[in-house]
Model the fold of this input.
Amino acid sequence: MHRVTRRLGLVLLTTFTIEAALMVVLVLAFTATEGSFGLGLWHGLFYAVSAFGNAGFALHAEGLATFDGNFAILIPIMVGVFVGSLGFPVFLNLIRARWVRKQ
Done:
């Protein structure tokens, strides 16, 4: 039981850390784009969770096409989708190998 609890804690910590990092970057970008901190905070949180979970949801009627050419928004979303698609077994192996390429 201790092992399961420890692994679940690691999964939650990894998820919240990655989503928080995505959210910080996206909040800054959305605040500059939308002109409002409250709207930037909501959009940053929503798109960070949506990207990491590979949900594909968008708050804008045109989807992400609204941000065509705005790489401050699109690149963090792309990174979030990619990292979220790796899965936790991959993260656990990377953590165990300490991100050493040979291992």
About this structure: Residues 2-96 form one domain.
